[in-house]
Amino acid sequence: MSDALINLIPIYGPWIIFGIVVVVLAAAAGAIVGDGMGYLVGRRFGLPFLRRYGRYIRLDEDRLLIGRYLFLRYGNAVVFFGRFIAVLRMFAALLAGANSMPAGRFFFFNITGGVCWACLFGFGAYAVGAEIYKISGVLSMISLGLFIAAGYTLSIFVRRNEAVLRRRAEQALSGCSRG
């Protein structure tokens, strides 16, 4: 099965690369649009929601003020790197909106982060697959070499112990024919 797929690479390789680029573009677009919507929801409902219900998770006005300051200072990094960190990925856009991060700054770091994230994971997966393919060729040659060495070693063992092995085989087979 894998040999059949490997043989298709020279024929369909450019289409596979094109498909990977399309997947990367779709992933980037989805990430950017999704976080953009999260930002808008956070901008519209986030702060009022946190002011009303924040006390249930120990977010009083002082902590909200500190959060706004920290987001003002480090919000660019939170938005850009947030998509690379699982838990932060879910909340970075909402927090950016809730903390009134300027839309221009948000969308700049959202777009650059989304494109970098999609490229890293999309092309990274392709590169890892290509390396596995290269390694599999080397491992196949090593396996072939080990198989030949094992066969040669076995043949030497059989030649050196032929008389002993013949005697054991005759005893084993004579015991089976009697039964």
Sheet with most strands: none
Rg calc: 32 Å
Number of domains: 2
The helicity comes to: over 70%
Helix/sheet category: mainly alpha
Query: What count of helical segments does DSSP give?
Result: 5
Report the end-to-end length measured between terminal Cα atoms.
46 Å
Total strand count, please?
0
Order of helices and strands: HHHHH
Mean pLDDT: 79
Residues in β-strands, percent: under 5%
> Quick one: overall form?
elongated
Q: Which consecutive residue ranges, at least 5 long each, have pLDDT under 50? A: none
Short description:
This protein has 2 domains: 2-129, no CATH class; 138-178. It has 5 helices and no strands. It has helices at residues 2-53, 61-82, 86-98, 103-160, 162-178.
Task: Write up this protein.
With 179 residues, the chain is mainly alpha-helical. It folds into two domains: 2-129, no CATH class; 138-178. Helices cover 91% and strands 0% of the residues. It is built from five helices and no strands. The two termini are 46 Å apart. The mean pLDDT is 79.
Task: Record keyword descriptors for this entry.
single chain, 179 residues, mainly alpha, 5 helices
